[in-house]
Amino acid sequence: MSEKEGSSAPYIVFGKPYIGEEEIEEVVASIRAGWLGTGPKVQKFTEGFRDYIGAEHAAAVHSCTAGLFLSQVALGIGDGDAVITTPMTFVATAHSIRHTGAEPLFADVHPTNGLLDPEDVARVLAEDCDIDDADGRPLHRATGRKVRALMPVHMWGQAADIDAFQALCDKYNLYMIEDCAHAIETTYKDRKVGTTADLSCFSFYATKNLCTGEGGMVTTANEELADKIKTLSLHGLSRGAWSRFSSSGYQHYLALETGYKFNMMDLQAGLGIHQLARLEKMYEERTRQWHAYREDLADVPGIEIPEAEAPDGRHARHLFVIRITEDCPVVRDDFLNALHAKGVGSGVHYLSVSEHPAYKDCFHTPVPNSEKLGRSILSIPLAGAMEEDGRKRVVAAVREVATGQ
Ligand SMILES: Cc1ncc(COP(=O)(O)O)c(C=O)c1O
């Protein structure tokens, strides 16, 4: 996200957040008040986000990665276990599984929309696992690990096929944890993503649709799990720092278990409160950009552009991902560099996790769709903060690079 020096038009930064004066004033007010850590703003933001999603419970955390990790810990997933997930995701999804002591098991994705393919997940469960008579859960033959959960990712803002995954969870006695890092505004059929799994984890990282710099939220219908995650996120303490000091007098806290330091701060929540209020307006602006990109890029040779709508509900318009086809004169990595030289930032979301060195030893059956996608996609700027002339410059740059200019 660096500014490019020396060019006349300003560099178009990929994933530039829209930060209004309201956010700035809110954060300054926290600093002036001296309450920087977890406090009333975290509580307000958590309740507002919970209501926006329509979830029954929400727990604010420091990041989506922390949320994914704590969700698994709260469900008792750990050593000796496995979680089936997609390799077409940010490494954090898989890392969160490994951090618990479990291992990810990758199934392949749809060849163009990048969503985890329920049929390949069903194949892994039916062909690569035996059912353990002791608990009716699948035991993965090659690794000897017990499969405990499915972790679909709502990639780029499109909903994964929740009904198909829920049917597999019911059949195999598995939990579902959904990675909603890209999917704050997403719906699956008529349901809001975030109400469609046992636990749902959101990201408020700097480039996300709602940004708090770093930040995350877990939503769930299960009060016990929500409480467990809240406790685990702050050292396993019996009370949060805020309620300890704001109630009448000092109250001792007790560490109920060996928790973690994954709490959200009021500084972050101060941003989140105002980002949440502007969320739908920003969504509408990105939707406008989305359709305008589709119209402007439809005739550009050598690239494929995303569909107008997601397969199963509302697309959150998080990432506008184009595919560089084999007949394009420029290969994907050269395409990225050429856009950069023309003053346009872009990104790759993502290289297949199966191709990262850290996952070379991770057991999985072939995932050719994910690996092919990971080598041929790139994301162009889509952001509420982008002006229309910037969007037009992106279009011109993509057209020039694709046609070898
Ligand atoms: C699909 C996906 N999952 C998880 C994460 C991790 O989010 P965070 O940075 O909030 O931990 C990201 C972040 O980019 C992501 O894109």
Question: What are the key terms here?
Answer:
alpha/beta, 9-stranded mixed sheet, binds pyridoxal-5'-phosphate, 13 helices, 405 residues, single chain, 3-stranded antiparallel sheet
Topology record:
Layout: H1 21-33, H2 40-53, E1 57-61, H3 64-74, E2 81-85, H4 91-99, E3 103-106, H5 118-127, E4 129-131, E5 138-140, E6 145-151, H6 162-172, E7 175-179, E8 187-188, E9 191-192, E10 199-203, E11 216-220, H7 223-233, H8 241-246, H9 266-277, H10 279-297, E12 303-304, E13 320-324, H11 332-341, H12 368-376, E14 377-380, H13 388-402
Parallel strand pairs: 2-3, 2-6, 6-7, 7-10
Antiparallel strand pairs: 1-11, 4-5, 5-6, 8-9, 10-11, 12-13, 13-14
Bound molecules: pyridoxal-5'-phosphate.
The site of pyridoxal-5'-phosphate has 14 residues, from helix 3 and helix 4.
Folded structure, characterized:
This protein is an alpha/beta fold and 405 residues long. The chain is built from 13 helices and 14 strands. The strands form 3 sheets. Strands 1, 2, 3, 4, 5, 6, 7, 10 and 11 form a 9-stranded mixed sheet that branches. Helix 10 packs parallel to helix 13. It is globular and about 65 Å long. It starts with 20 loop residues before the first helix and ends with a helix. Bound molecules: pyridoxal-5'-phosphate. Residues 63-65, 89-90, 92-93, 153, 179, 181-182, 203, 205, 216 line the site of pyridoxal-5'-phosphate.
